[in-house]
Each structure stands twice: as structure tokens, then as C-alpha cells.
Specification:
11 strands, 2 helices, Rossmann fold, 149 residues, two-stranded antiparallel sheet, alpha+beta
């Protein structure tokens, strides 16, 4: 096992077959990581970690969980910390870099290296109406066609 390391990300997971597979939502503070996570959770995703996630490599995969102090909590702007149903751990298959600007229309496939393992990466306009669907489609594609080490 390699790690864990703490990353600034909100991680949400969706059931894919028998597994819960996650996406790490990254980007600057205030860009909309938690807002997109709440929109995804309204569509059946589950929270794994909000704002900070512990990530480690084991068995050729990346895994994520929340630090103990924030497990099951999500910070909704204007409301504060809210307890929510959550997954204790998930396998990471995707990282989503959130921004305010529209990303490139037809980018070449991209991956990042996390703890020595490749992780598919996409850019998404955080507040776009289609953002939850784009993340869901990208996660399904990442599961179908994992990046080779």
C-alpha cells in the first residue's frame, strides 16, 4: 500500500456493478465542488469525502475515504455542516477539475498520476447544467476503459 495522502477534493461515488467507484472533484476554493457533489447526490451518488480526502494505492487501484473528523459531513454554503448518508471508502477512477470557464470542446484523453498510478482526468464547468451528466458519463467511460499504468 502507498499512502494515504490528503488531497483537497470532494469525492463522490456511484455504484458500478458490484463496486462503488468514485470521482474526485478538484478545483479552487469556491468553484463549486460541494455544489456539484450535492447535485450528484440528488441523482443517487453518495458522498465519500468533502473538501479533504485521504487517498492511497493498493492492489493496483486508487482508493479514497474521508478523514475521521469529517466522515459523513458535507458543508453546504449558507447552511453549514450537514450529516448525510455516505460511503466509507470507494475506488477512485476519475478526477474532475472544476472551473468557471467552459473547457475545451473535444480534448484529447488526459490522465494524471496519483501515487504512481494513472487516473483519468476531465475538466468541467462547475455550474453548467450538464455537469452532473458529464461526470456520470466520464466515470462510466473510466470504468469501461481504465487508463493503463
Amino acid at each position: 500500500m502507498t499512502g494515504p495522502i490528503q488531497v483537497q477534493a470532494t469525492v463522490v461515488a456511484l455504484r458500478q456493478g458490484d463496486d462503488w467507484v468514485g470521482a474526485a472533484l478538484t478545483g479552487p476554493s469556491g468553484v463549486g465542488k460541494t455544489g456539484l457533489a450535492l447535485r450528484l447526490m440528488a441523482q443517487g451518488w453518495q458522498l465519500v469525502a468533502d473538501d479533504a480526502a485521504l487517498v492511497w494505492a493498493s492492489g493496483g487501484h486508487l482508493w479514497a475515504r474521508a478523514p475521521r473528523a469529517t466522515s459523513g459531513l458535507i458543508e453546504a454554503r449558507g447552511v453549514g455542516l450537514i450529516s448525510t448518508p455516505h460511503r466509507d471508502v470507494c475506488r477512485l477512477a476519475l478526477t474532475v477539475t472544476l472551473g468557471l470557464d467552459e473547457p475545451e470542446r473535444m480534448p484529447d484523453p488526459v490522465h494524471e498520476i496519483w501515487l504512481g498510478l494513472p487516473l483519468r482526468s476531465i475538466a468541467v464547468q462547475a455550474r453548467a447544467e450538464a455537469a452532473p451528466r458529464i461526470v456520470a458519463l466520464a466515470l462510466a467511460e473510466a470504468v469501461r476503459r481504465p487508463v493503463s499504468p
